[in-house]
Input
Amino acid sequence: MIPRVSLAMRCAIFFVAACLLAPIPNAKAAVTFTCTVSATGIAFGNYNPLSPVGDSATGTWSVSCNAIGSGSATVSGTLTLSTGSSGSYVARTMMSGTHALQYNIYLTPSYTQVMGNGSAGTYAPSESGTVTAGQIYQITGYMYGYMPPSQDVPAGSYADSIVVTVTY
Output
């Protein structure tokens, strides 16, 4: 009988959002707006290194813009993610002391589009829309975390910090 090794770990992804405002106003618009960014972390459960399948988890992000004044303005924004402790988008790592557990964050649940800053084959989702005075414009999306199977790591609490930046 093969002993089952369970690895209690969480991916504590901390989100730091930077929101730079640069609206492109319509000719008749006198609108200013503020945007807020929120996100939930991607929290993996117990990882079993003997399992033939990887582990997955989902997080969300949301950007909400409130227009003040009169008229409307077009807003364009891009969401980017940092590399975290690994310094690489190819294989992000969660650390427990000196031990590393590979994972990544994807744009879709098919785990084919790595979320990053748009360089080195990564994807940085962009969106644009019209913000009208007195209304709130909101965009929400998902982040899909995946850890490959068969990683020989000791039990422990593994974590990484990812900086999420939204530029408008």
About this structure: The longest strand covers residues 55-70. The chain has one domain: 19-167. Residues 1-29 have pLDDT under 50 and may be disordered. Residues 32 and 68 are 5 Å apart (CA to CA).
